[in-house]
## 1
Amino acid sequence: MNSKTEEVLRKDIRKSYNNKLIQKFINAGLEEIRACINCGTCTGSCPSGKRTALRVRSAIKKALDGDESILKDKDIWFCSTCYYCYERCPRNIPVTDMIIKLRNIAVEEGYILDNHFDLAYNVFYKTCHAISAIGENNKKWRELRESYDLPSLPPTVHSYPEAVKECQKLMREVKFKQLLDKIKKKKKKDNKNIK
Ligand code: SF4
Ligand code: SF4
């Protein structure tokens, strides 16, 4: 290899190590991403990829290249976290953890599917349950419980308004609520810009 080629390669490697996206993986302890040899075993093993447009090798390649368009890509949300790719990767790259990290970064940047946002904001934050038992939609279920002489709500957070407040306080302390507010603002702005 001549010195010119070596210099170009070194520059490219430096560039990819320094880009914001890969730096976030390294900071999260996922630096094995740099060992990817693009063999495609992860894509070939992926059951979600057989039914959706998710191509996990290509998602990793984009992350490695620092291509931030991957954060807006709906496909990263099709991973079912089954860990097949993780188990089969010949370079021991924690592929599933990377997909989860990609999603985390995407959400930090305000990219989240509407349904997920709705669940986080209108269900999880408001009721402190991932699946809420309150609300008109669950009326039949509550009536069914009562028909068996059970209280309409099980003795979980729903039944204790003080506990709901505590959970919400916790979500504010860890800045989860602030993140949701930021995303809400962004979504409003993006929708306004759609003509
Ligand atoms: S299986 Fe591992 S080495 Fe192969 S493309 Fe996927 S992440 Fe890269
Ligand atoms: S963990 Fe996700 S990306 Fe990996 S094989 Fe399963 S569905 Fe596909």
Note: The CA atoms of residues 172 and 178 lie 7 Å apart.
## 2
Amino acid sequence: MINEKIFLCSICNINSGTCNEDCKFCSQSVRYKADIERYKQKPLDAILQEAKEARAHGALGFCLVTADKGITEKSLKFVCDVAQAVSKEVPELRLIACNGTATLEQLLILKESGIKAYNHNLETSKDFYSKICTTHPWQERYETCQNVNKAGLVLISGGIFGLGETQEDRVSMLESLRSLNPTSVPINFYHHNEALELEPNPLTTDEALELIKLTRETIPHAQRIMVAGGRELMFGERQNEIFAYGANSIVIGNYLTTNGRVMSKDLEMLKSLNLEVAKKV
Ligand code: SF4
């Protein structure tokens, strides 16, 4: 692990807080009235600015996220337009889309517009899923991941820990992920928002580190285990330990509705660990 280069990714919420689904961990659902910024389409100038900043700090991945259950005709066009504009201005970035459930046809259209990878998380185990979401089934998530593979896009799929799931649920989710053969596995740690009815994340830092290790061990063929949302809150001063437990990728900058730390701090952390930033995929 210590010789591995660390892949940096940045996420851009190009449509925020407008989702009608009821995922209990998500402040972007309109149902919970969380105090977050909500907008239909982020202005292209702002997106390009974020893309340039991410690249300037070493990011290779740039993920275009829309808050909705799945792709609509309108959001598909918006994502394609944004992808083309970002590819033109910052061609070194590898573009990822994260737009919810998607058909094979929709994914092929994204691919044509320059999207290289698609992120769709299973979130949790098949059995626990109905406890955290009642408006769409887990199976639909799994099928979208299968569609991503069929479309020949790179599959990025992971989940979120700390929702009240059992250890069996965690193992089950990781086994389901393994069956999809994802290239990258983003793992998130629930970041509580008081507008949400879920209990705060009960995991200790040691338990969370062990979950990174378990992810790596269960999905050994994944090229990247990425620590994504909740990193600062979950690991605090011990963020530098995540790499020794199997992480080789992180999200830098802000998350969808919460702030990350300034990007330069992460670069300093990697330098202090003698870890190099990956310069190619
Ligand atoms: S479908 Fe996605 S955006 Fe909508 S509430 Fe669930 S996690 Fe949030």
Note: DSSP finds nine helices and nine strands in the chain.
